[in-house]
Specification:
304 residues; Rossmann fold; Alpha-Beta Plaits; six-stranded mixed β-sheet; four-stranded antiparallel β-sheet; 33% helix; elongated; binds adenosine-5'-triphosphate; ABC-2 type transport system ATP-binding protein
């Protein structure tokens, strides 16, 4: 578990993180979201003891980072996939990391196997693809078999197969009971990966909830209806005070009514339905809705 308690970080006049409190629970993947400059990287650095808070604190399973005995066995992180000497092989890089943290050599082979790099472990890392470098970074994070894991933008620049692999890998780590915090700009990917979300803007907490709650709270649900009598049904729904939009393909999008209400109204007039499906808002919509005021620089016009 990770607990941020009134965490604040100032750089001169800039307040990068502002009285931020949240918890990240074990057994779940938690997405860490916020517009550019929101303070995500600064927060992650403070969790890892790479930066000191101006005030407040972060606890990892009840302890601040500085008090952790053999920290790599408690918390592992992927911050920058390029953090490996290009002339070193994956095996040599991990052996060096293991040695400097008093971890057994056997663990190097274990984590290389876990991330699927055993076959290329002796090749120099400079020749690795981005996906392979990300896997190597993840192997490094897992070296000490920690219960808490942080991943900063782990899927940036990866192809769909690489993204899927990382998604499943993170979900498996959470299913083993670990605490997994992951930041990403790819919201549609986060919607598929994370069960919980911590959303920040301008250094402050905007929302902490499950992903489903976050989307439901900040977007209006609609219901998609198809009927051979769409005109008649549309008129009936408007009569009842609902907002109805006729789509180009003849379907109706209804705002303000539940699918139960629409089904009952249709049945009362013997209107046949071919489809009645509630539509969920997207994480993108929810994110834009809630973080709109917290963006550092808004795009204006064409950006020229
Ligand atoms: N070392 C530093 N010195 C001065 N200002 C800093 C420093 N690090 C971060 N900041 C400022 O703190 C704020 C938060 O930055 P941070 O990098 O934590 O945001 P972020 O959410 O990770 O952004 P992004 O999504 O763009 O990576 C920004 O205004 C940034 O300019």
């Amino acid at each position: 578990m990770i607990e941020a308690i009134s965490l604040t970080k100032r750089y001169g006049k800039t307040v990068a993180v502002d009285d931020l409190s949240f918890t990240v629970e074990p057994g779940r993947v938690t997405g860490f979201l916020g517009p550019n400059g929101a303070g995500k990287s600064t927060t992650m650095r403070m969790i890892l003891g790479l930066d000191n808070p101006t005030s407040g604190q972060v606890l990892i399973d009840g302890q601040p980072y500085a008090k952790l005995h053999r920290p790599l066995t408690k918390i592992g992180a992927l911050l920058d996939a390029n953090w490996v000497h290009p002339n070193r092989s994956a095996h040599a890089h991990l052996r060096w990391l293991a040695k400097s943290n008093g971890l057994p050599d056997q663990r190097v082979d274990d984590v290389l196997e876990m991330v699927g790099l055993s076959g290329v472990a002796k090749r120099r890392a400079g020749g690795y693809s981005l996906g392979m470098k990300q896997r190597l970074g993840i192997a490094g994070a897992l070296l000490g078999d920690p219960q808490v894991l942080l991943f900063d933008e782990p899927v940036n620049g990866l192809d769909p197969e690489g993204i899927l692999w990382i998604r499943r890998f993170m979900q498996n780590l959470a299913a083993e009971g670990r605490t997994v915090l992951v930041s990403s700009h790819l919201l549609s990917e986060m919607a598929l990966t994370a069960q919980d979300l911590v959303v920040i803007g301008r250094g402050k907490l905007i929302s902490q909830s499950t992903t489903a709650e976050f989307v439901d709270r900040s977007t209006e649900g609609t219901v998609l209806v198809r009927s051979p009598h769409a005109d008649k049904l549309g008129a009936m729904l408007v009569d009842k005070g609902f907002t109805v939009k006729a789509d180009a393909d003849g379907a109706l999008t209804v705002l303000g009514a539940s699918s139960e209400e629409i089904g009952e109204i249709a049945a009362s007039q013997n209107v046949v339905l071919h489809e009645l499906s509630p539509q969920r808002g997207s994480l993108e919509e929810a994110f834009m809705q809630l973080t709109g005021d917290a963006v550092e620089y808004h795009a204006t016009g064409t950006g020229e």
